Amino acid sequence: MDLLLLAVAFAVILVGSELFTNGIEWFGHKLELGEGAIGSVLAAIGTALPETMVPLIAIVFGGGMVASEIGVGAILGAPFMLATLAMFVTGAAVLLMRKRRPTGTRLAIDTGVVGHDMAYFGVAYGIAIGAAFLPVELEWPRRLIAIVLIGIYAHHVWVHFQADAAEHEGLEPLRFHKLDRRAPQHPHAPRMFIVSVQVVFALVCIIGGAWAFVRAVQDVAASTSLNGTLLALLVAPIATELPETLNSVLWVRRGKDTLAMGNITGAMVFQSVIPTSIGLVFAPALWTVVGGGVAFGSAAVTLGASAVIFLPILVRRRLGAMALTLGGAFYLGYVVLVLAVLARSGG
User: Fold this and answer.
1) 213: exposed, middle or buried (C-beta count within 10 Å: 0-12, 13-18, 19+)?
2) Are 119 and 304 in contact (CB under 8 A)?
3) Three-class DSSP labels, the chain
4) Is 274 exposed, middle or buried (0-12, 13-18, 19+ CB in 10 A)?
5) Staple 77 to which of 30, 51, 237, 317, CB 3.0 to 4.6 Å?
6) CA–CA gap between residue 314 and residue 122 (Å, rounded)
7) What number of other Cβ atoms are within 10 A of residue 192's Cβ?
8) Residue 192 vs residues 120, 130, 177, 252, 341: alpha-carbon distances, Å
9) Which residues 6+ apart lie within 8 Å of 35 measured at CB?
């Protein structure tokens, strides 16, 4: 029954995320925003909502130690999955489609957009993980750091919104355009009202699916006696990071590489700030490396994978598919480590 609930919740999250992303793209189009604002901010926030709702519901509304462990694990697991598995899948997609792409295995990205995202991610995530090394009893500095992180993200968003507007080519019709009885004959020119309806409906799906997913993960953790943090690190993020990954693959297929990468790197910035701030404010005692070495070890893997993958951007101002696939090696290495810890602990 728990597995069925997981599957249903996962499906609801995916549907909601796809509708949200489609609606957000139209929202950005109508506001004449640039690719950075659309991919790294609007689309990133939309597809990051599922994994953001998991720690929010688990920590704030879930109650109990198991729920909080799941929340902290989900916070750490989201950037880890984006920096490793999502990068690998995107790189593999580029390699598979190289013959149909004008640039082959090279991603035609705006290095300014992606570089901006990764710089802010490195700073924000470094500060957040640094807070975990503070003495456990010091809770107020952790809450202060949360405020600093919110300020960093606000500036990140502001810079993207200052960029010039982009030309929107190949924008798919709004999914809800047929529901607009006042303009059903214009699928490529929906009104802002129907765009907003789709976005709100998508949010309801995402929040409802996330609530059900947290409950199911808690039940699985209790029935299998697995550590809630580790389960959340390896199970919940794989499911909830799929929207970013699938959307990036679709954008790569259509040659929109900046949107594809911005969707992932923008989500990494979002995940390093918003869910982390939730943990720092509502579960400060659990945001510590004491007793959570393996969980926080994923942060080291995340930062390492990010540095290795995006170093070519700093050196050669370009990014290739092979560099992205290196994320798979970092992911497998960490999975082996987690399985070894579970085996040693008898989990």
Assistant:
1) buried
2) no
3) CHHHHHHHHHHHHHHHHHHHHHHHHHHHHHCCCCHHHHHHHHHHHHHHHHHHHHHHHHHHHHCCHHHHHHHHHHHHHHHHHHHHHHHHHHHHHHHHCHHHCCCCCEECCCHHHHHHHHHHHHHHHHHHHHHCCCCCCCCHHHHHHHHHHHHHHHHHHHHHHCCCCCCCCCCCCCCCHHHCCCCCCCCCCCCHHHHHHHHHHHHHHHHHHHHHHHHHHHHHHHHHCCCHHHHHHHCHHHHHCHHHHHHHHHHHHCCCHHHHHHHHHHHHHHHHHHHHHHHHHHCHHHCCCCCCHHHHHHHHHHHHHHHHHHHHHHHHCCEEHHHHHHHHHHHHHHHHHHHHHHHHHCC
4) buried
5) 237
6) 14
7) 11
8) 31, 43, 11, 27, 51
9) 110, 113, 163, 166, 258, 259, 262
Low-confidence stretches of the chain (pLDDT < 70) are 1-2, 50, 61-70, 164-170, 182-188, 214, 217-218, 220-222, 224-240, 242, 291-293, 342, 345-347
Could you tell me if residue 171 is inside a domain?
no
Looking at the structure of the chain, the number of domains it has is 1
User: Range of 217's domain?
Assistant: 2-166+176-345
Whether 64 is in a domain gets the answer yes
Summarize pLDDT for 180-204 with one digit per residue, the tens.
Answer: 776 655 556 788 888 889 888 988 8
Residue 99 in any domain: the answer is: yes
Closest CA to 272 of 43, 28, 55, 27: 55
Burial of 65 (0-12, 13-18, 19+ CB in 10 A): exposed
First to last CA, the chain: 22
State how far the Cα of 222 lies from the Cα of 207, in Å rounded to an integer: 23
CATH of the domain at 15: 1.20.1420.30
| pTM: predicted TM-score of the whole model, two decimal places | 0.84
Contacts of 307 (CB under 8 A, 6+ apart): none
Q: Quick one: pLDDT at residue 94?
A: 92
Task: Classify residue 181: in a domain, yes or no.
Answer: yes
The set of residues, in sequence order, having a beta carbon less than 8 Å from that of 206 and lying 6+ positions away, is 12, 13, 16, 17, 20, 49, 50, 53
